[in-house]
Amino acid sequence: MDAQSRGRADEIDPADQWVLNPQTGNYELRLNQSAQQSSASTNAAPRTPAPRSPRDRRTASPEREVPGQRSRRAGNASGGTPPTAGRRKRKQPKSRKKKALLWTGGVTAVVVVAAAVGAYLVYQHFDSNLNTVDVAGAGSGGFKKDQAVNILVIGTDKRSGEGNESYGDKDSVGHADTTILFHVSKDRTNATALSIPRDLITTIPTCETKTSEGTKDIPGTRKTRFNESLGQFGRDPGCTMRTVKELTGVTVDHFMMADFNAVKTMTTAVGGVEVCLAKDIKDKDSKLNLTAGKHVVEGEQALAFVRTRHSVGFGGDLSRIEIQQQFLSSLIRKMKSSDTLSSPSKMWDLAEAATKALTVDTGIGKISRLRDLGMELSKVDPKNITFATVPVVDNTDGATVLLNEAKAKPLFSMIQNDTSLTEVKQQQQDAKNKQQGLLKGTRAAASEVRVAVFNGSDTRGAALTTLTWLQNEQGVLKSSNEGNAPSKLPKTTLTYAPNQADQARKLADLMGLSATALKPGTKDAVGLEAMQLTLGADFERAGVPITGPAKAPEGVQKVEADKQVCAK
Question: How many CB atoms are located within 10 Å of the residue 559 CB?
Answer without folding.
Answer: 18
